[in-house]
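User: Hi! I have a protein structure encoded as tokens and I'd like to know what sequence might fold into it. I'm fairly new to this, so please keep things simple.
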């Protein structure tokens, strides 16, 4: 009792039924245009192409030592020149993640995606681990021997969504008990790396992972997440340079289980939870991702540096492709409030935009918006169930770049002053 109000329930009710009305769920079946969509649209060539594009655009690259990627397909012509290893390397259905039905045409595994580029003679697979739990190293030797004979190796590591192992599996009703890679997965990567053959590690998972020795053992690291039925083709498009990686991780990769607060500890500030509050070193920060090119930010202009509490700030800047490969770039706007009078997040993402296919040498002008809610604070004494957000008078800092300000070199910055305070819900 007392944890919500009739007004809050009414607001939620209106939101839910507004969407139901827009979808025609309360209309007669013959009046609902969605009922007339033909099943031929499902898995149409256009939808398959869109899934492949989405899979490639979602890939985050965390390491690319000596610019080993992208690979050139013409360098792999001899039999068995390319090894695809890992417990889910040939499992296309796992790429679909939770709440996904089997496709009529089949899901494309990472192995199949690479085979579609190089052919079945050039591409071979030895899993190294038969199961995602990777409980034994008994199959390592076959994978290691294949790696020695190959010119490049991809190893697919991560989790499954349809099993019950406490560490290797994640899905509806099944949270992992650890952020570690299950069993001997990291040992498999280390054994493959010891062969000296270039090693590309591809991660397939949902939640955060403790990278452990992967950051040292892998020559390149690509995070595919659960990329969908065309995930194998999307990942292959990145590996062989048909697309440049431009995904940015939407979560923080912590160093180990013991670096996190105990399960159930909801203290936001000590040691903190999520990128907004966590103050210890991290393995991969929220918003991070590499590309096959480089970008420079310049010419920052704010439409105002002194504003009222309800004003929206337009932040404009140039982004220039300073490398040699055309690529998307994800520009990000962050806020810091070192002068706040109450505890606040150490940093907040306020806006972002994916700038598409910037050519080498090309500059584009972009604008991000900073709305009042992204620098509003929770005053002391407000209800935990119904916090009354306030926009405080005073100054705050904003930053623009390709990642968080504490991790991204070449960021732009500015300072904004708010002339007076106001309740956010009055804006």
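Assistant: Happy to help. Inverse folding works backwards from shape to sequence: for each of the 427 positions I chose a residue that suits the local structure. Here it is:
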């Amino acid at each position: 009792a007392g944890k919500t109000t009739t007004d809050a329930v009414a607001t939620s009710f209106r939101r839910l039924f507004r969407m139901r009305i827009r979808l025609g769920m309360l209309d007669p079946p013959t009046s609902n245009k969605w009922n007339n969509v033909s099943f031929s649209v499902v898995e149409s060539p256009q939808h398959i192409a869109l899934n492949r594009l989405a899979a490639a655009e979602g890939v985050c690259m965390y390491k690319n030592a000596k610019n080993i990627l992208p690979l050139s397909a013409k360098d792999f012509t001899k039999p068995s020149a390319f090894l695809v290893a890992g417990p889910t390397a040939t499992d296309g259905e796992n790429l679909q993640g939770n709440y996904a039905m089997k496709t009529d045409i089949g899901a494309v595994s990472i192995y199949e995606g690479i085979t579609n580029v190089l052919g079945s003679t050039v591409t071979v697979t030895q899993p190294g681990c038969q199961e995602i739990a990777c409980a034994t190293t008994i199959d390592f030797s076959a994978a290691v021997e294949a790696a020695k004979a190959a010119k490049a190796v991809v190893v697919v590591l991560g989790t499954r969504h349809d099993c019950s192992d406490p560490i290797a599996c994640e899905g509806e009703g099944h949270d992992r008990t650890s952020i570690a890679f299950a069993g001997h997965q990291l040992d498999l990567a280390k054994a493959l790396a010891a062969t000296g053959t270039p090693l590309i590690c591809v991660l397939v998972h949902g939640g955060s992972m403790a990278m452990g020795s992967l950051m040292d053992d892998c020559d390149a690291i690509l995070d595919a997440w659960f990329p969908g039925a065309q995930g194998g083709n999307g990942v292959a498009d990145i590996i062989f340079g048909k697309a440049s990686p431009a995904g940015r991780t939407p979560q923080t990769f912590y160093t180990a289980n013991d670096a996190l607060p105990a399960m159930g500890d909801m203290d936001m500030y000590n040691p903190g939870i999520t990128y907004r509050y966590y103050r210890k070193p991290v393995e991969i920060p929220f918003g991070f991702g590499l590309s096959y090119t480089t970008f420079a930010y310049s010419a920052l202009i704010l439409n105002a540096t002194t504003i009222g509490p309800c004003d929206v700030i337009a932040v404009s800047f140039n982004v220039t492709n300073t490398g040699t490969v055309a690529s998307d770039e994800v520009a990000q706007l962050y806020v810091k409030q070192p002068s706040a009078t109450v505890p606040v997040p150490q940093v907040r993402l306020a806006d972002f935009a994916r700038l598409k296919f910037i050519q080498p040498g090309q500059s584009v002008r972009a604008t991000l918006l900073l709305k009042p809610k992204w620098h509003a604070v929770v005053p002391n004494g407000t209800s935990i169930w119904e916090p009354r957000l306030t926009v405080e008078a005073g100054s705050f800092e904003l930053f623009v770049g390709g990642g968080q300000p504490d991790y991204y070199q070449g960021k732009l910055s500015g300072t904004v002053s708010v002339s007076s305070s106001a309740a956010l819900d009055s804006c």
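A useful reference point when you look it over: Residues 264 and 273 are 11 Å apart (CA to CA). Feel free to ask if any position seems puzzling.
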